[in-house]
Design a protein that fits this description.
alpha+beta; Immunoglobulin-like; 5-stranded mixed beta sheet; signal; binds 2-acetamido-2-deoxy-beta-D-glucopyranose
C-alpha cells in the first residue's frame, strides 16, 4: 500500500467520523433538556408549605424552552399541569416529601426531583 492509498483511506475514515458527530449533535438538540430549580424549600423545613419555581433549559445551548409541556407531582399524587414553572403546596404532613417536574414533548420524558423533609 502506497502513501497515496493510505491517505485516501484515512480521509474516508475521518469524513465518516465527522458525519457521525454531526448526526449525534442534531439528535441531542431535540432530546436534551434540564430542569433547574430556582426556588425550593429548605431540605429540612419547619414549614408545612412549599413553593417551587424552576426553569427548563435546552441543554445544548442553555436557552429556556418556551414550548416545553411540564407536569408536576407531589409524592404519590397525580400529575398536574405545570406550564407556569411553579407549584405551591400547603398543609404538608411531617416527614419526607418528593416533588417532581417532568418535561414532555421530547423523545423521552425528562423528570427532575427534589426531596425534602418537613419536621
Ligand atoms: C428523591 O428520592 C427518590 C426516592 O427515594 C429518588 O429516586 C430520587 O432520586 C431522589 N431525588 C434526588 C434529587 O435526590
Amino acid at each position: 500500500m502506497g502513501w497515496r492509498r493510505k491517505g485516501q483511506w484515512l480521509s474516508l475514515v475521518l469524513s465518516s467520523m465527522v458525519v457521525a458527530v454531526v448526526m449525534e449533535a442534531s439528535a441531542g438538540s431535540e432530546s436534551e433538556v434540564v430542569v433547574r430549580f430556582v426556588k425550593a424549600p429548605h431540605p429540612l423545613s419547619a414549614l408545612d408549605s412549599a413553593t417551587f419555581e424552576f426553569e427548563v433549559l435546552e441543554e445544548r445551548n442553555g436557552v429556556l424552552c418556551s414550548d416545553c409541556t411540564i407536569r408536576c407531582k407531589l409524592d404519590g399524587n397525580k400529575f398536574s399541569d405545570c406550564d407556569s414553572r411553579q407549584a405551591s403546596y400547603r398543609s404538608l404532613s411531617e416527614g419526607d416529601h418528593m416533588f417532581e417536574a417532568c418535561v414532555d414533548g421530547y423523545r423521552e420524558i425528562h423528570c427532575a426531583s427534589y426531596n425534602w423533609t418537613v419536621g
